[in-house]
């Protein structure tokens, strides 16, 4: 009987083993998740097609306000008869992607969850909310603060000329800024995956913080539509804050720390 008790106690203290999957199993799981994601995006596209015109009006609001403040005609033009239709098509597709974002992110989580300990799989809800929340926060930051400031600078700088802005050029600029900032705000999620796989660690990120800040300012200079330092700093400031936040996140999810916590939990 003492031997059985000792064996049971030793079994409880044994660290939790990771589930094993073959390479073909990983490929099959990846294929399944991609198919589900494509179906969700297609459903989102057809659901948003009827609202494409309203979404385009919402996209044009910043440029219209900037033109009005500078006393210019509040009109965008197009050069090709297919441009309006292509614009609505692109907008409906992007809106559908946004609408399907929770489903797509859930598929991402389901793909990586086999590599997590059992007690870590309950973090699916925080993962979903943080990923969607960060992306929306980045888009909102660009739409409310960065983009209006950039348009005010650009249009005010060239107010002695008559603007002839095409819907194609404006849409590309809008998506570059808004989606660019939305993706940039996903930096903690990227670090989450890299640290989870052991590619980066909190110590490595802290030791290279100076080079990372330099890269951040280079990215900000590429994304920002203007050439002034103020707008570049507006882009870079939240990116630096997110990088510092990511250092703490990398420490929490690095394999060494996860293994140590699993061993402590098994005792």
Proportion of beta-strand residues: under 5%
The major sheet is characterized as: none
State the separation between the terminal residues, measured CA to CA. Answer: 21 Å
Order of helices and strands: HHHHHHHHHHHH
Average pLDDT, rounded to a whole number, is: 80
Poorly predicted regions are: 1-14
Bulk shape: flat
Structural class: mainly alpha
> What is the total tally of β strands?
0
What would you report as the Rg, rounded to the nearest angstrom? Answer: 24 Å
User: Helix content range of the residues, please?
Assistant: over 70%
Tell me the number of helical segments per DSSP (H or I, 4 or more residues long): 12
Describe the protein.
With 267 residues, the chain is mainly alpha-helical. It folds into 2 domains: 163 residues, no CATH class; 71 residues, no CATH class. Helices cover 77% and strands 0% of the residues. It has 12 helices and no strands. It is flat, with a radius of gyration of 24 Å.
Index terms:
267 residues, mainly alpha
Topology (SSEs and partners):
Layout: H1 2-13, H2 23-49, H3 52-69, H4 83-99, H5 101-112, H6 124-157, H7 167-184, H8 187-196, H9 202-207, H10 209-223, H11 229-253, H12 255-266
Helix pairs in contact: 2-4, 2-5, 3-4, 3-6, 5-6, 6-7, 8-11, 10-11
């Amino acid at each position: 009987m003492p031997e059985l008790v000792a064996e049971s106690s030793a079994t409880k203290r044994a660290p939790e083993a990771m589930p094993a999957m073959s390479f073909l199993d990983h490929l099959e799981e990846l294929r399944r998740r991609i198919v589900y994601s494509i179906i969700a995006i297609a459903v989102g596209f057809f659901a948003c097609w009827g609202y494409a015109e309203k979404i385009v009006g919402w996209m044009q609001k910043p440029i219209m306000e900037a033109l009005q403040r500078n006393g210019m005609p509040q009109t965008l033009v197009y050069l090709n008869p297919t441009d309006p239709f292509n614009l609505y098509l692109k907008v409906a597709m992007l809106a559908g992607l946004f609408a399907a974002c929770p489903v797509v992110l859930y598929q991402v989580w389901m793909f990586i969850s086999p590599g997590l300990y059992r007690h870590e799989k309950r973090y699916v809800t925080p993962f979903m909310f943080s990923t969607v929340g960060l992306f929306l926060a980045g888009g909102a930051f660009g739409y409310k603060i960065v983009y209006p400031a950039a348009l005010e600078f650009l249009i005010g700088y060239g107010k002695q000329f008559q603007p002839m802005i095409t819907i194609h050029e404006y849409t590309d600029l809008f998506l570059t800024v808004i989606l660019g900032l939305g993706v940039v705000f996903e930096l903690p999620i990227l670090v989450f995956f890299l640290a989870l796989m052991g590619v980066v660690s909190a110590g490595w990120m802290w030791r290279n913080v100076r080079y990372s800040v330099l890269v951040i300012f280079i990215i900000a200079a590429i994304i920002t539509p203007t050439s002034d330092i103020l707008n570049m700093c507006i882009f870079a400031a939240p990116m630096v804050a997110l990088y510092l936040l990511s250092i703490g996140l990398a420490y929490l999810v690095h394999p060494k720390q996860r293994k140590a916590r699993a061993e402590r939990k098994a005792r």
